[in-house]
Amino acid sequence: MSAAEPPGGAEEAAWQAMLRRAAAALESLRAAADARPGGSERDAVYAEDKLTLYRYRPLASGAGRAPLLIVYALVNRPTMLDLQPDRSLIRRLLERGLDVYLLDWGRPDGADRLLELDDYINGYLHRCVRQVLAAHAIPSLNLLGICQGGTFSLCYAALHPARVRNLITMVTPVDFHTPDNLLSKWVRGLDVDALVSAWGIVPGELLNNAYLALLPFRLGQQKYVHLLSGELDAEQAANFMRMERWIFDSPGQAGAAFAQFVRWFYQENRLAAGTLEIGGRRVDLGQLRMPVLNLFGTQDHIVPPSASAPLGALAGSSDYTALPLDAGHIGMYVSARAQRAVPEAIDRWLRERDPRPSGS
Amino acid sequence: MTAGADPLLEPFRTYCDQYLGVGRLLGEAASRAAGGGDPAQQTHAFLDALSGLQRQLTGLWAGTLPGAPPAASFAAAGAAGPFAPFNPFVPGGPFGGVPGAGAPFPWAAFVPGMAGAGLAPGGAPALGPTREFQELWQRMAQLGEQLQQAQRRVLKQWNGIVSTALQQLGARASALLAAAPTPETLRTLYDLWVEIAEAAYAKAANGPAFAAAQAEFGNADSRLRGVQREYLELAAREFDLPTRSELNTVLQQLRELKRAVRGIEERLAGPGPREP
Questions:
Q1: Are B141 and B41 spatial neighbours (Cβ–Cβ below 8 Å)?
Q2: Which H or E run includes B24?
Q3: ipTM of the shown complex
Q4: 3-state per-residue secondary structure call for A82-141
């Protein structure tokens, strides 16, 4: 890298030390360049088009507890849920004896541009649910939806309530028109049809840039500057590179579904207004009569807590629990506090509602 | 560090270079201000010296430097993508970077009946056997101009943010300007800059003018890309090459077929649980 000339009059030794630290940090990062997310053992149990349904191998006995199907967002890869052994929501759930399935949407390409939300929710997700139910010979399962996957899970559970025993949402937007939702403000004037027509598959980089634009100075530069300023050991460098790889590993978005999501949710706020229709059927959150656990971060700048919290008033469930945690959007998966609190809360909440073994 | 060791490290390296560039400017500004005497004079000298920083930052947001932040992403993507040769605003492109200039038509030599044909300049009606091409070209030029105007409005927003932030930085940084900068004071100055700039940005970004400028920019970019595709499709048809429109038709037919098959499968599988 091109080192800057130290400003005149400064103590030469201090400047040299700073530059040495920066060089050492870069060297540590270079050495950690191959660090990859993931690690928990799993098997693909169903595949269709680009999606794969995984079942994770158990780490503890679950004594026949109902399986938990995790539905992640389309806009990033679900590797964040199993980043590394000591930062893995999935691993913590497995250690508590939960039988965990993960729906991996895969990476859409040009052949998927016409996929609609109906295809994702009443198609792919519905068929994955049926696969899990058939494998366990049970009528309903536990559904954990995360971020946009949480919004999909809300729609699914409202449309197919008999198949969802307990519903858990995490950092999930419900009301898209709250005053602190910056993303929502930005896309209101967007001609999403022109965007989708121009791109077909909306590039992941475009969405990533939008997320970075929420805090451009901190996320675009300062976080890297902080790395240069301190000592960076091999483990810290590997952690950083795994996270960095995840952040910028953004699949493209099937154009038709993207347009519907932006228009119906961000621009018209139909889910909260009760006017949303998917596949010709109205999505009525009043149909959510199953127990609902809603986890959200009080520091979340992507899905502000004000966007998640209204679920309590909209869901028809008489057993609704809101659990705000002092964390940001990413911290909800990987911070040390969340690593303890989130799996523990999910496990305890499910045990309280599903105490007896069911199915095989 | 060797170049190309890993794609992830390249942006990082760019950020580091940019940081040190910003850091150097901050350091130089602080050094100049340190000799200024009274605090007001120091602040004035500091702000004066920061004009270079403002130029660098607005240059970043204009997309003229690597690692341009999000505001310029639409244009940056268009400029770097496969359509770059057809973007009237890409320097060195076939349209010379000037909309409506009537530069030689890139397809003319290959399209039957077009070789040597004159093209209607911007504003003139499209006529003759190449009428469709001329019309598309004119629309591209108009949309390109709209994109430039939209980009200027976005830049105006960013200039306002940077100016506000730099003024506030000058007012709050005086304590750090009393002595020659050290790595520690420079780091503090940098963090202060980020804190102030992020706050100024948040205030602007939440306002309607910023959202409108961003949306207008994105919409202009999308519309230009849309016409660029029409243009390529027209040329592709001249060569009997498959087009995106044709492929979309096939995809739609396949989609309907798959749905019909699934419907039959589900009817054969029998009814599931009752749904609301």
A1: no
A2: helix B9-34
A3: 0.87
A4: HCECCECHHHHHHHCCCCEEEEECCCCCHHHCCCCHHHHHHHHHHHHHHHHHHHHCCCCE
Domain count, chain A: 1
Evaluate whether residue A13 is within a structural domain.
no
User: How many degrees, rounded to 5, is the angle at CA A109 between CA A107 and CA A112?
Assistant: 100
Amino acid letter, A110: G
What's this model's pTM, rounded to 2 decimal places? 0.83
A10 lies within 8 A of chain B by CB = yes
The answer to whether position A133 is within a domain reads yes
Are the beta carbons of A139 and B218 separated by less than 8 Å?
Answer: no
Is B3 part of the contact surface with chain A (CB cutoff 8 Å)?
A: no
Indicate the residue of A185, A194, A222 with minimum beta-carbon distance to B226. Answer: A194
Contact predicate B82/B54, CB 8 Å: no
Question: Is the residue at A23 inside a domain?
Answer: no
3-class state of residue B125 by DSSP = coil
Give the separation between CA A119 and CA A193, rounded to whole angstroms. Answer: 19
Cα within 13 Å of Cα(B210), Cβ side: 21
Name every residue whose Cβ is closer than 8 Å to that of residue A226 and which is 6 or more positions away in sequence.
Answer: none
Residues A17-53 pLDDT 10s: 877 888 888 888 889 988 888 789 999 999 999 999 9
Domain harbouring A118, CATH code: 3.40.50.1820
Going from the C-alpha of B106 to that of each of A33, B36, B90, B145, B160, the distances in angstroms are: 43, 59, 15, 20, 40
* Beta-carbon contacts below 8 Å between A and B: 184
Q: Are strands A201-202 and A253-254 parallel, antiparallel or unpaired?
A: antiparallel
Q: Do the strands A100-104 and A51-56 form a parallel or antiparallel pair, or are they unpaired?
A: antiparallel
Question: Least CA distance to A243: which residue of chain B?
Answer: B8
Are the beta carbons of B1 and A26 separated by less than 8 Å?
Answer: yes
CB-CB contact of A323 with A292 (8 Å) = no
Residues spanned by the domain of A189: 42-204+252-353
Q: Which two tokens stand for residue B191?
A: 């963090």
CB contact under 8 A, B276 and A159: yes
Chain B residue with minimum CA distance to A112: B251
Give the pLDDT confidence of A245-265 residue by residue, as tens digits: 999 999 999 999 999 999 999
In a domain? residue A315: yes
H/E stretch holding A292 reads strand A292-297
